[in-house]
Amino acid sequence: MNAGRPSEKILHLLSGLAPRFGLRPPRFLAGDFGVVMMSALPYGGGGEDAPDPDNPVGVLAPFARKNFYREMTLRLRALAASAGEGPGETPGEARRRARVEALPAHRIFCNSPLPEKELAVASGLGRAGKNSLVYLPGEGSLFVLGGIFFPSPERSLSPGTGPPFRPVPLPEPGEICGACDACIRACPTGAIRGPGLVLRERCIQGLAADPVRVPEDIRETWGPTLYGCQICQEVCPLNRHPPMAADTGLGVLGAGVPLAAVLEAPEGRLKKTLFRGTVLDRSWISEAALRRNALFAAAHRGSRALLPLVSLYAQGSDPMLREAARWAAARIMAWTITGTGS
User: Fold this and answer.
1) How many Cβ atoms sit within 10 Å of the Cβ of residue 195?
2) DSSP letter string over 42-66?
3) 3 state DSSP class of 37
4) Reported pTM
5) 68-85 and 8-17 helices cross at what angle (nearest 10)?
6) How far apart are the C-alpha atoms of 107 and 164, rounded to whole Å?
7) What DSSP string runs through 251-294?
8) How confident is the model at residue 32 (pLDDT cuts 50, 70, 90)?
9) Are the CB atoms for 253 and 60 separated by under 8 Å?
10) Residue ranges of the domains in the chain?
11) Cβ count near 297 (within 10 Å)
12) Which of 129, 143, 116 is nearest to 244 (CA)?
């Protein structure tokens, strides 16, 4: 790969080619760190699951129903390849060829440790809402973010090293929202404390991947969720007309996953079998957290059919799962007594 920054010609070419790959027109941020290109891929609003009392499922947020992050990464690679080869080839040809010699040294990122939301705002791709998420003008927030980082020649491209971005003055979160506070009022756990201020320790999405004890008041509002929460986006007026989801066949899970399958999976095998190649296969998503989420979802489904599995976890060795299972079992039994469970 060539060293140095991308030329204006390359940046212009990337901008022009991006829509061919289903990516939103990119924006660029330059500094002594190098150049960052930011773009977005829509995942759509999704639909609700149809509850089946005989096979209760844990609900997945729309962004997790297919592996849009992997799709975004592949499209960025194809874009880089196409820019490297020049115009005249189809996206499929670019993807197959995947040659990037004509581009300077770069790193493609999506759902990475980099501050992607801040980069998206700083580059001008979008603005931050009161829920801290990035909104593209006229399109809303139902997108995955990603981009290409071209470091200055003296900067490292090692995978564990992020670019040393200097702070960039950003617009205040929520400026695009005006007086609307629908997301703050709708958050079931009260995690959104003010414009751009979201407490991870109270956010269902934030908690869903971490193997931590969840306070009981949050368990009560967890619902049948296995992974992800988008309530703050569902109630947002700016998301009334979401763009159509990008087409991908990667990591398809659908609107929900059978809770029995999650709870029955052998220890250490859940992500390697049921969730292999999906969004839930990410390294930072804890298998124990997914099992805990399944126990909470089982409780909110009130499923008597799952009670034997839940009871096994209530006698297990993991303190977090044991506590979650005992709480879930008590709730299912209460639903059974009142006749409201499935």
Assistant:
1) 18
2) E----------TTS-EEEE-GGGTT
3) strand
4) 0.88
5) 130
6) 14
7) T---SEEEHHHHHHSPTTTTTTTTTTTSGGG-TTS-HHHHHHHH
8) confident
9) yes
10) 8-43+67-159, 182-338
11) 27
12) 143
